[in-house]
Amino acid sequence: MEYRNLGRSGLKVSAIALGGWITFGRTVKDQKMAQDIIQKAYDSGITFFDIADAYAHGESERMMGAVLKDFPRHTLVISSKLFWPMSDDPNDKGLSRKHIMESVDKSLQRVGTDYLDLYFCHRWDEETPLLETMRAMDDLIHQGKILYWGTSMWTAAQIQQAHDLAEKYHLYAPQVEQPEYNMIERASVENEIIPVAEKNGMGLVTFSPLHGGILTGKYEGGIGKETRMATIDWMKDEMFSKETQAKVKRLAPIAEKLGVSRAQLALAWAMRRPAVSSVITGATKVTQVEENLAALTAELTPDLLAEIDAALAG
Q1: What is the domain-level CATH number for residue 158?
Q2: What end-to-end distance do the CA atoms of the chain give, in Å?
Q3: Nearest to 77 by CA among 169, 147, 175
Q4: Mean pLDDT by groups of 10 residues along the chain of 314 residues
Q5: Is the CB of residue 125 less than 8 Å from the CB of residue 153?
C-alpha cells in the first residue's frame, strides 16, 4: 500500500480508501459480510475509511464502526460527513452550528470512537453563513472531537472563500476536499478544484472513481436487474448514456494492453495525480477489495495516458 500526505498536512492516508456509500447498510446488510470486507481492506493496508451520517441513515456508520473498533485506533483514519437531512426537524440538516454540534456527537456514538480524523461539510449550505460553519468546525478541532475538517463538492470559489475567512479570523482552514472524480467527470476537478487545492495546501480524497460502476464495462450489455445501478434511478438517468458507453468500450484494449481490468485502469488513472491523496472505493464482496488493490501496481506511462485521453475524447 502507498501512503500519501493529505495535502501539506502531516496526516498520511492510504492511496486507496474504503467507503460506505451505497454499500454498508444498503447493499451489504449482513454484519459478517461487512466484517469480512473491512477486515480484508485493513489487512491489505487500507487505513482510511470514509463514512457519512446520511449513508443508509446512520446504518453505515454503525456497521463500519462495529468492525473498526477492533483495530488499534491510531492505525486508522476515519472520516464522516454532515449536511443532508437526518429527520423532518428543520434544524436536523445543513451546516448550522446547532446541526454541526449535535451531528458530530451522533456520528461519534454510531461509529464508536472518541474523535474523527476528518469531518466533511457534505455540500455547501446556502442558508448558513460560512463563518458560522467555520467557527463551529474550529471549535470541534479545539475540543478534540475532530482533527481536520474538509469540504465536499464545493466549488473552487467557495473553497477559496473558506481559506480567506480562516486567514482573516485565525481559524482552522479546510484541509481536504472530497469531489467526484473519474474518467467521465473530470473537467471541473482538473481545471478548477485541483488548482485551488494546491494553492491552499489541501489534499483531495476523490469518490466514484468507477462512475457508479459504468467504467468497469459491466453495463455494456444493459443494466441487469440484480445490479446496483438498477436500484438507483438517479444514477441510472444521470450516468448511463450511449456516449459514455462508447468511451468505456474504447478503454477495453488499453486495459488489455496493460494487463488489467477496466476497473483497475480507472482506479490507477484516478490515483495518478499528485493532488489526489486517496481514492475512495466501494466493495460489496471481499473479491472486489482484492480487485481494487491490484490497481496499485498498474503503471500508466505518458503514452498510455495519451491513449486514454484520446479514447475519452473520441
Answers
A1: 3.20.20.100
A2: 34
A3: 147
A4: 98 98 91 97 98 96 98 98 97 98 98 98 98 98 98 98 98 98 96 98 97 85 58 59 88 95 97 97 96 95 96 88
A5: no
Asked if residue 173 is part of any domain, the answer here is yes
Catalytic residue among 55, 119, 181, 219: 55
Residue 138 cell numbers, joined: 474550529
| Cα separation, 122 vs 55, whole angstroms | 11
Q: What is the pLDDT of residue 239?
A: 59
Contact residues for 180 (Cβ-Cβ < 8 A; gap 6+)? 153, 189, 206, 207, 208
**Number of domains, the chain:** 1
203: which strand partners? 176
DSSP 140-205: HHHHTSEEEEEEES--HHHHHHHHHHHHHHT-PPP-EEE-B-SSSS-HHIIIIIHHHHHHTT-EEE
Task: Say what the pLDDT of residue 232 is.
Answer: 60
Q: Give the CA distances from residue 309 to residues 38, 69, 182, in Å, rounded to whole numbers and listed in that order.
A: 34, 42, 12
257 in any annotated domain: no
Handedness of CA 164, 170, 176, 178 (dihedral sign): negative
Which residue type is seen at 10? G
Angle at 280 (CA atoms; ends 275, 284), nearest 5 degrees: 165
CB 185 within 8 A of CB 208: yes
221 is a domain residue? no
The boundaries of the domain holding residue 40 are 3-214+264-298
Q: Which helix (H) or strand (E) holds 209?
A: none
Nearest CA to 83 among 46, 119, 125? 125
Residue 45 lies in a domain: yes
Could you tell me which of 122, 202, 196, 203 has the C-alpha nearest to residue 160?
196
For the question of residue 55 being annotated catalytic, the response is yes
> Residues near 167 by Cβ (< 8 Å), separated by ≥ 6?
173
Dmax (CA) for the chain in angstroms is 55
